[in-house]
Design a protein that fits this description.
- This protein has about 60 residues and is mostly helical.
- It has one domain.
- The protein is built from two helices and no strands.
- Keywords: Membrane, Transmembrane, Transmembrane helix.
């Protein structure tokens, strides 16, 4: 396992946690559908894509 794969796994884990927290807060009504919840959800999705891109780019080297 090279550094890129480990970094990608860490980013994916953090992103999924952020996304889960945002989704839980929205579902339980802790926060309304305000920009903060949407930012958390989209940052989670973006983090997953960043992790995938890092993993793919590190494999090609």
């Amino acid at each position: 396992m090279n550094k890129g794969v480990i970094l990608a796994i860490i980013i994916a884990a953090i992103a999924s946690m952020v996304e889960a927290i945002g989704g839980y807060a929205l579902a339980t009504g802790l926060i309304d559908a305000n920009p903060h919840a949407l930012i958390m959800t989209f940052s989670g999705i973006a983090g997953m894509w960043i992790a995938i891109i890092i993993a793919l780019s590190s494999r090609s080297h």
